[in-house]
Protein: Tyrosine--tRNA ligase
Amino acid sequence: MPEQDLIAELRWRGLIHQVTDEPALAKQLASGPQTVYIGFDPTATSLHVGSMMQLMMLRRFQQFGHRPIALVGGATGMIGDPSGKSEERNLLTAEQLQENIAGVREQISRFLSFDGDNAAILLNNFDWMKDFSYLDFLRDVGKNFPVGAMMGKESVRARLGSEAGLSYTEFSYMLLQAYDFVHLCKEYDCQIQAGGSDQWGNVTAGIDLTRRMLGRQVFGITAPLLTTSDGRKMGKTESGAVWLDRDRTSPYAFYQYWINVNDEDVMRCIAYLTEIPRDEYDSLAESTQSDPGRRVAQKRLAEWMTQFVHGDEGLNAALSASKILFGGEIERMDDQALVEIFADVPSQELSRDLLSGEGFWIVEAFQQAGLAKSGGEARRAIKDGGAYVNNQRVSDMDQRLTESDLASESVMVLRKGKRNYALLRFTGR
RNA sequence: GGGGGUUUGCCCGAGUGGUUAAAGGGGGCGGACUGUAAAUCCGCUGGCUACGCCUACAUUGGUUCGAAUCCAAUAGCCCCCA
Structure:
């Protein structure tokens, strides 16, 4: 692919929020392969969909022949970036940080190519920060930071104006990140730092520092944040963030998240997060416009994302689970298949004896399954017509469950409302 | 330190002696509609061995046949004077 198209590619996808000296950067990009870096905070053992933007950004650079550096913030993670945070962060423990770094590294490595002329590089800034003494750092780096300029940064101003305040530690964060850029520029000839728009302050701090310390012009480019049309951050559900790690967010839940994206947001997600090309994008946009009910764009987005993050088998699992959970009869299935499909659903093990004799009272069953906090709540669900056993509505308050109500050898599928499922497994004797 | 006010169910907020498990709104949960959406509409929203019983209106103790409603003390919050 011709290098000069990168900017155009990023632009039509809406991925350029701010750039420093765009004409010079365009020239630089056109002059040959460049090295670009993005930092990732090891705040958890997994990245979430918010970080996908950054990951994809590196991929896009790589696809256009540039060399990406993914920097895991082992050192900066010890401090905590105040950008966009309204309160002082708790410091992570050393062990926690180690685990996080390992998890994040593993994930990043899955999405970049480590072969060829422009093989990606994975670094940890702890490696060059660990031997930097406090005194040396103050003399070499700190000296180049006018406090006035630091005070002007949005991330600092926001916090100083609030009750939460800002510790010296977090105040110093930007020096560390800025120095990363200097280091990468010196050691890897890295001249571009990318990131989310909340990183603008840190990025420009790095650019200034590089100019002062190395006398070199380097560039910054930030992408917009992934937000919904009403301004909220995307990638959050009631139960928390949407993670890339299948143990935290199953392929099914991941798929469902994207399927449910609003019409107003879906095209932006496709542009920002996928590599679906322009012409298909246009036809999806057209379809969303003319026939929103079919949700062609949502399906494509969910499919692409799930496939990309969880592979073919992840996507297949998500698709088959979705099919059953949103309609299908549940009958004559086997334990194995049921448990797989309902992998996300809470389950309870109960004694099989409950099913013999009189049977197991439906109200009690819903309580045990965790679908109702009290008997009253369970009764209400039944009265309101919102209680289902194996996807069939229950109307009789006094119903007793027996072996004939099992959906498979030992499992019963209870549901309250549209989507609240729970499994009861009747085992033992 | 003195004076006044306030305290209600998940939240806000009516209610000043008896059909009050407590108006109304929000939220939540169901249902209908729908596109596994949004909007809209409807129902439910203390517990239980459930047409009955129990526990609830800051806490404790009183008055009364009967109190969330009256009295007293205690605690929290708010305001005014010093």
In short: The two ends of chain A are 66 Å apart (CA to CA). Residues 256, 259-264, 292-295, 298, 322, 325-327, 374-377, 379-381, 383-387, 416-420 of chain A lie near RNA strand B (CB under 10 Å from a C1').
